[in-house]
Amino acid sequence: MEMDKLVSLCKRRGFLFQSSEIYGGLNGFWDYGPLGVELKRNVKEAWWRDMVSGHDDLGVPAGAPEAYEMVGLDCSIIMHPQVWKCSGHYDLFHDFMVDCRESKKRYRHDQVKGRWVSHDGKRLFVATAVEDEQQRSDVQQRALKYFNLRGKDAGDLTWETDLVSLITVTDLAQVLGPDAKQLGTLTPPREFNLMFKTIVGALGGEDDAAFLRPETAQGIFVNFKNVLDSTRVRIPFGIAQTGKSFRNEITPRNFTFRSREFEQMEIEFFCHPDSSFQWYQYWRDRRLKWYVDLGLAGDRLRLREHSADELSHYSCGTSDIEYAFPFLNSGEYGELEGVAHRADFDLRSHMEGKLDPSTRPLKLETGPDGKPRWRGSGKDLSYRDELTNARFIPHVIEPSAGADRATLAFLCEAYTEDQAPDENGVMQTRIVMKLHPRIAPIKAAVFPLVKKDGMPEVAQRIYRDLKRNFNVFYDEKGAIGRRYRRQDEAGTPYCITVDSQTLQDQTVTIRDRDTLRQWRVNLHDCVAELRQRLSP
RNA sequence: GCGGGUGUAGCUCAAUGGUAGAGCGACAGCCUUCCAAGCUGUACACGAGGGUUCGAUUCCCUUCACCCGCUCCA
Predict the structure, then answer these.
(1) A509 CB less than 7 Å from any atom of strand B
(2) Please, what are the domains in chain A?
C-alpha cells in the first residue's frame, strides 16, 4: 500500500487533517476529523476498557503470576519543574548540538572529544566522535592526514593536550570536525529544547518557567503515594493514564507517526522486586495480544526484545511492540509501544533526587560541588506490606503506548483495495477500510433501498433504535451501491437495508463490509445482532 | 538542521507572462428494487509574503507545508 493513498483518503473522508491547514499547516501537529476522532476515541476506550475498567481484580488472567488491581489517573499536563529534573528529562532534553557544514553531520556538543596538536607552526584541535577506545588513534590518523604526513612521521606532531571535550574549545575556527577535511566547519553549539517551555502566572518571568509534560508516566509516579493512601490498593497493582504529551522533535516525519503533540496510553505497574521479571513478561505478552485482537495480526506486527547493550543499567528487560508502517523501508519497523522494566529507578529518583542511570547499584547523581544534582521530594515512597510488615520500594513495569501511533497502524492495516462488481457485473476497484468493528468510527449504516414506498420511514425508525446504542448513520440519497461504497471507505462494518420484502415480513438485510455477504434478520433484532457482533 | 523534489477545486491531475480546465467527489433535482461511472443543474482552486513587469498561477527571492535521502530522536 502506498502511503499517499492513505493520506489522501484520511483527508478526503475526514480522518486526519493537517493542523492549522488554512494558515499553511504547522510541522508536527495534526487534527482528527469527524471520522478520525471516533476512531481514536474507540482505540483509547478499547484500551481503557481492556486494561482498566473491564479488568477483573479477582481472577488471575492467563499468563499473570497472580490477581492484580488496576486503577486510573488523570493528572495535569504542567507539573512542578522539579519533576522533570528528577526524572532526567530536563538534562536529557537540553542537549547542545553542533553541526558540520562540510560533512552535514550533527554531534552532541559534550560528546565530541579531541586533542590540541601543532606542527610546522600551525595549531589546531582535532575532534573525533568515534567510540572511546578508538579516539586516540582516530585523532592521530586524521592529524597526520591533515598535515600530509606519513605514519612514521607521527613523532613530528606536538600534542598539547590529552583528549578533552569540545566544550573546552572557544575558537571553533581552529577545530577540525570529526568528519571534516577542512578547519572551522563546525557551527557554534545550539541548544535543542526538546521539552516545550511555558510560563506559569500572568506576570511570570524566567523563574516561573514550567514545561509541558514529555510523557504522562511521571504524573503517575508523583501520585503513587496519593493512590496508595486513597484507594486501599495493594501490590501488585497498576495505575493507568491516557493523555497528551509534548516533545519538540527535531524532525517530525511520517504523517502522524512522529508528532510534537501526541497522546499516550500508559500503565505503571507496581510489584514486588522478586516477581518483577514475571510481571514484565506478562505485560509484554498481554500488550502484544491486545494489538493482535484488534486486527494487527500478521507479519507487520512484531515484538522486539531489546538486546542487553540496549538496556538501561537498571532495567532487566525492555520490549518494543513494533509495526511495519508503509512509510518505512522494507524490513524496518516503527515503535507502537515500549514495555519497560524500570525497577525502582523512578520512585527512588522522586524520593532521593535524580539518580545516575549509568551506576549500578543506582547512585545519586552529584554536581561539581558534590551535592545532589537535582534534589528529590524527600517524601517516603516506599511500600509497606500490611501482612508481613515488610517495607520495600516497588519495582515498576511500564507498558507505554502511543494512541496516535496505534490509530495510525490500525488505519494502515485497514486500508485495502479489492475488486467488487458494479451494477453491470463488471469488476471495479473498491477501497475499503477493514477496521475492526470495535474501533470502526461508524458501527452501521441504515438505508432504504429506494426513497419511496414507505421504506425511508421504516429505515428511520431502525436508525433511531440503533442510535441509542451505537454510532450509526442514515443515508437515503443516490444509488444503493454508491451508498455501500461510501461506507466501505469509512470502515463501517455493517449496512442495514430496508427493501420491499421488509414491508411484507419485517426483515431487513445486513451486509458485511469485508465479504459483501448479506443475510436477513427481523428488524426488531438489529440491536441484538449488532451488539453481539461488536462485543470484544 | 542539510541536500533533492513537490505545492493549481474536497481528491487525482492539466494548461498558460494577458484573469485557469477535466475526471472523480460534494450538493439540489430527476431516474433508480442491492454493490460507485444514467440525466439536468450548482458550488468550489493557483500554499503565504515580497520583487520584476503595463500585467505574475507562470520568472526571481523569502517563507510555510508535504515527500525522499542524510542527520537527529527513542
Answers:
(1) yes
(2) 3-80+198-410 (3.30.930.10), 96-191 (no CATH), 442-534 (3.40.50.800)
| A82, three cell numbers | 522539579
- Interatomic separation, CA of residue A108 and C1' of nucleotide B11, rounded (Å): 43
A481 touches strand B (CB under 7 A): yes
Q: Which of residues 106-135 of A touch strand B (CB under 7 A)?
A: 106-108
With the CA atoms of A161, A162, A164 and A169 taken in that order, what torsion angle do they form, in degrees rounded to the nearest 10? 20
**Does residue A5 approach strand B to less than 7 Å at its CB?**
no
Nucleotide nearest to A329 (CA to C1'): B68
Q: Is the CB of A41 under 7 A from strand B?
A: no
Give the Cα separation of A154 and A237 in Å (integer).
63
Measured CA to C1', the nucleotide nearest A104 is: B2
Q: How far is the CA of A10 from the C1' of B9 (A)?
A: 18
Scan residues 138-197 of chain A and list those with Cβ within 7 Å of strand B. Answer: 192, 194
* Per-residue tens of pLDDT for chain A, all 536 residues: 678 889 999 999 999 999 988 888 888 999 999 999 999 999 999 999 999 999 999 999 999 999 999 999 999 999 999 999 999 888 777 667 777 766 666 677 777 888 888 888 888 888 887 776 778 888 888 888 888 888 888 888 888 888 888 878 877 778 888 887 777 778 777 766 788 888 898 887 777 889 999 999 999 999 999 999 999 999 999 999 999 999 888 778 889 999 999 999 999 999 999 999 999 999 999 999 999 999 998 889 999 998 877 777 778 889 999 999 988 887 888 999 999 999 999 999 999 999 987 777 888 988 778 888 899 999 999 999 988 999 999 999 999 999 999 999 999 999 999 888 777 777 788 899 999 999 999 999 999 999 888 999 999 999 999 999 999 999 998 889 999 999 999 999 999 999 999 999 999 999 999 999 999 999 999 999 999 999 87
- Cis-peptide, bond into residue A236, ω within 30° of zero: yes
Query: Distance between CA atoms of A458 and A468, rounded to whole angstroms?
Result: 16
Copy the grid coordinates of residue A74: 488523570
A450: CB within 7 A of chain B nucleic strand: yes
Q: Are A476 and A447 in contact (CB under 8 A)?
A: yes
Cβ(A396)–Cβ(A343) under 8 Å? yes
| Strand B bases with any atom < 7 A from protein Cβ | 1-3, 7, 10-12, 25-28, 30-38, 47-48, 64-74
E runs forming strands in A169-299: 175-176, 190-191, 197-199, 209-211, 237-246, 261-271
- Cβ A216 to strand B below 7 Å: no
A331 touches strand B (CB under 7 A): no
Rounded CA–C1' distance between A373 and B65, in angstroms: 41
Nucleotide with C1' nearest the A476 CA: B32
Instruction: Report whether A351 contacts A295 (CB < 8 A).
Output: no
Of A100, A104, A129, A99, the closest CA to residue A114 belongs to: A129
